[in-house]
Design goal:
- The complex is a heterodimer of chains A (about 450) and B (about 130).
- Chain A is built from 13 helices and 15 strands.
- With about 450 residues, chain A is of the alpha/beta class.
- Chain A folds into three domains: about 40 residues, no CATH class; about 120 residues, Alpha-Beta Complex (Aspartate Aminotransferase, domain 1), CATH 3.90.1150.10; about 260 residues, Type I PLP-dependent aspartate aminotransferase-like (Major domain) (Aspartate Aminotransferase, domain 2, 3-Layer(aba) Sandwich), CATH 3.40.640.10.
- In chain A, helix 7 links the parallel strand 3 and strand 4.
- In chain A, helix 3 packs antiparallel against helix 11 and helix 6 packs across helix 7.
- With about 130 residues, chain B is α+β, with helices and mostly antiparallel strands.
- Chain B has one domain: OB fold (Dihydrolipoamide Acetyltransferase, E2P).
- Helices cover about 20% and strands about 35% of the residues of chain B.
- The chains are: A alpha/beta (about 450), B alpha+beta (about 130).
- At the A-B interface, loops of A face strand 4 and strand 6 of B.
Amino acid sequence: MLERIGAPSEEALWEAIPEQFRVPGPLPLPGPLAEYEVTRRFERWAAMNADSSRYACFLGAGIYDHFIPAALRALISRSEFATAYTPYQPEVSQGTLQTIFEYQSMIRELTGMEVANASMYDGATATSEAAHLAAGATGRKRVLVSAGLNPHYREVLRTYSAAGGFDLEEIPLSEGRTAAARVARAAGEGTAALLWAQPNFEGIVEDGAALTDAAHAVKAYSVAVADPIGLALLRPPGEDGADVVVGEGQPLGVPMSYGGPLVGFFAIRKADVRRLPGRLVGVTVDLDGKRGYVLTLQTREQHIRRERATSNICTNQGLMALANTIHLALLGAAGMRDVATQCLERAHYLAERLAEIPGVLLVNGNAPFFREFVVRLPGSAEVFVRAALERRILAGVPLSRFDRSRPHDLLVAVTETRSREELDRYADALAHWAKSRTDSATEAACRS
Amino acid sequence: MNVPKELRYTKEHEWVRVEGQEAVVGVTHYAQSELGDVIFVELPAPGTRVAQTKSFGTIDAVKTVGDLFAPVTGEVIAVNTDLKDNPALVNQSPYAKGWMVRIRMENAKEIDSLLSSENYAKHLGAHA
């Protein structure tokens, strides 16, 4: 190759870089490997992971181990989908535009709202954009945030609010739920919105109607951050009058992948469509009267409206939104209800079994929950999680990661993919561990 | 060239019809023909105070969004709500049905700083 371009040596290629910036001598890298050696090396590293295909995964906190049908994986890998770019030219992008239109229609149905956009980066940014929309629409700045929102989402909200568009005020949870009375006390004339999650971060089902009413009482927006699987069973916030419904679409056919890529959904009432961030696909007819799809209301977007745009997102998570669409189409309403029901039943079965273990308490025991719950252990949750690894169980997310005052609390998620055997294995593991904890505590007490 | 003689104009292609202490404002025939199909007009709520030369709203065409600049300072006392459902009125009838806002002027002398129809036509001639 050097000969071909007429370069005397490899070093000659770097001549344009001043001598003082060049690294002297060869780089401290290991030598080249043959392809099979590279493969073996990566396989060895991969085998060190405790991944969900070999460990029973009870991790949640925003990303869940739901089943992804093989048909979905096959369709998503098609190059027409995986390599397609933004459908700015409708005449050559009808396939892409139609699937986005179907996606928007399904999200509308799931959330009970009038308009859904082509998707956002993730649930966290969708939530922040919703706060921004509410502030702009109401002309107010105070955004009330339930402490039931995912802590990562609250972190992202704080980043967005630092830009000055809105201020945040947190509403603490009361026994695991957001109390409408507390919202009513905090809300006032300057309140732009109430942000609440359904179910919330600790898995509890919130009273959406009461929270929406509390927001509307001061003419603020009710913004629901909803789980899409939960929406198959729980009443869609749109039906209770929520003004914006957003959430994370990962549970719908997107792999966990150590945290991404993710995909946010964003649904509103038609009256707010001029403030809708992101892309929107519409259906129309061409000159011959044939149905066609186009990106519509593009003058909202930053590439046209520039500094007057209400948001600077000018993209969507096309491939992940497509995964959501295929997933919803494959399962259908009945299949989605089935999945949600199995999550509910399995989570409750495990919660009951764990609550029976001496020393283990189901926190917020009286509140209704969907697919996740918090248990308080007779010892450090982090320690139990490490011990459970030996039994090939990813036991859950210790809440101490978000709140140092809760070292014994563990957030446990149970999806439809957790078998009876795995649930029983978890209960046995915790029973065994809890016993050794209380035994040693008793011993220590006796000795002293 | 469609530049009614009785109106006054800004360099940014707004027109003004003076009615006593009030000014009715819209965009000119030239403006709408350059923009193409108008699909949305964002106007201030009645009661809003606008300042001469400052933006008081936007006009959206399919591929572009432009500012609307206030030709005079004052309070918006009426807004053409027909434009909400039928923004095309701006294209069809820019000087009549496509009017945008009615402003109660704080200082009627500001009218003197606006272009006459001859000077606006000259301004357009320089453009072409």
